Amino acid sequence: MMKNNRICQTFGIDYPIFLAGMGGAACPKLAAAVSNAGGLGVLGAAACTPSQMRRWIKETKELTDKPFGIDTLLPMSVRSGGNLKQNEGKDPTELLAEYQKMAKDFMNEHGLKMVELDRQVDEEDNLGFFTKEFFEAQMEVVIEEKVPVYAAGLGNPAPWMERLRANGTKVMTVVGAVRHTVKVSSAGVDAIVAQGHDAGGHNSPVGSMALIPQVVDAANGTPVLGAGGISDGRGIAAAFMLGAEGAWIGSAFLASEEADIFDHQKQAIIDSTEEGTVISKSVTGKPARIIRSAWTDFWERSEFDPLPMPFQSGVAGPVLQSANKDQKARYKPRFCRPRNRDD
Fold first, then answer.
1. Helix (H) or strand (E) holding 55
2. Quick count: other Cβ atoms within 10 Å of Cβ 319?
3. Reported pTM
4. In this structure, are residues 285 and 308 in contact, taking their beta carbons and an 8 Å threshold?
5. Which of 86, 170, 179, 290 could form a disulfide with 333 if both were Cys (CB 3.0 to 4.6 A apart)?
6. Which residues pair with 2 in a beta bridge?
7. Dist. CA 3–CA 197, nearest whole Å
8. Alpha-carbon span 193 to 203, nearest angstrom
9. CA separation for the pair 242, 254 (Å, rounded)
10. What is the DSSP string of 289-339?
């Protein structure tokens, strides 16, 4: 692994190792731990409200004086105050009640009880989830708090580049296709993450070994981080051989003490084998690599397709919250790839 290469110099770090901004799990403690160790920790804030983002940023600054980043989504297909644009088929809002009933029936069948959440909403958070206003409010927090590094987990940060640059914020984005690479490299980002099909969570249909060199070739000189299936030095070395100058690593950190997931989830990750994951839309509505569970099996057998993002999250949410409360890992999928057996 090359120390003090372009990635290290650009981001002010000792090692070109980045904590992937995994939603929820990549919390302040984990991000700070990675940054303090010489890499770059990235907060997974895609689902965070603006006020929660501010709290996370403040906590991270208290835990480290090293550079760190924050990851949100910048989808292009979200209407103002509304839902994802749908080109065909029924309006997902018309199907939501029916799907929520299916989820309730699943919970009853498996002995899962509804969890009542105590939600205290700050005035700043009085926004519809997954709307244009929601994502814009998140970006305003990133800019106001002058976060050292911003990572777009989805979408092109071009409209925000001028304001981010004025703050001295370094900008990176995650891509899963060559065509995305061409767009974001022209925006002037500091690094591009090539995340292949091997990755946990939302990923590309293209395998990491095929994707990384193609992104490197299309990046017009912008440094590339390899992602997807990397969990040790061998994977990092392979990414470098494919032309990457750094590694974006997520699942390997999920079983760490600092990761903000439940102990039974960490154990499920440790116990998972190379055949223990599936690509499923059952959690968010977008294809994601997650640990197989009764919930993913239910949707594989179902005659219905999961609703598109973000509606499926509203269907899956109560099931996953209940499974967490009861520590029933076999009902709770977790975004990850299987660990190498000697990780």
1. helix 50-63
2. 26
3. 0.88
4. yes
5. 290
6. none
7. 27
8. 11
9. 25
10. EEE--HHHHHHHH-SSPPPPTTHHHHHHHHHHHHHHHTT-GGG---B--PP
- The first and second tokens of residue 99, run together, are 């799907």
Cα 230 from Cα 131, distance rounded (Å): 33
Structure tokens at 63: 């835990």
Place of tokens 């991270």: 60
Instruction: Output b/e per residue, 159-184; b: 16+ Cβ within 10 A.
Output: ebbeebeeeebbbbbbbbbeebbeeb
Tens digits of pLDDT across the chain (343 residues): 567 899 999 999 999 999 999 998 999 999 999 999 999 999 999 999 999 999 999 999 999 999 999 999 998 765 455 444 444 457 888 899 999 999 999 999 999 988 765 555 555 565 566 788 999 999 999 999 999 999 999 999 999 999 999 999 999 999 999 999 999 999 999 999 999 999 999 999 999 999 999 999 999 999 999 999 999 999 999 999 999 999 999 999 999 999 999 998 899 999 999 899 999 999 999 999 999 999 999 999 999 999 998 889 889 999 988 888 766 555 555 555 544 444 4
Q: How many residues comprise the chain?
A: 343
Neighbours of 47 (CB within 10 A): 17
Looking at beta carbons, which pairs linking 81-86 to residues 24 or more positions away fall under 8 Å?
A: 81/128, 81/131, 81/132, 81/133, 82/128, 82/131, 83/130, 83/131, 83/310, 83/311, 84/130, 84/308, 84/309, 84/310, 86/308
Q: What CA–CA distance (Å, rounded) separates 153 from 193?
A: 9
Whole-angstrom distance, CA of residue 200 vs CA of residue 227: 10
Contact 327, 262 (CB under 8 A): yes
Q: What is the DSSP pairing of strand 288-291 with strand 277-280?
A: antiparallel
Q: Which residue has the tokens 């990133």?
A: 142
> 24 CB contacts (<8 Å, ≥6 apart)?
44, 47, 260, 261
For the chain, list the domains and their CATH numbers.
1-78+130-260 (3.20.20.70), 91-129+262-343 (no CATH)
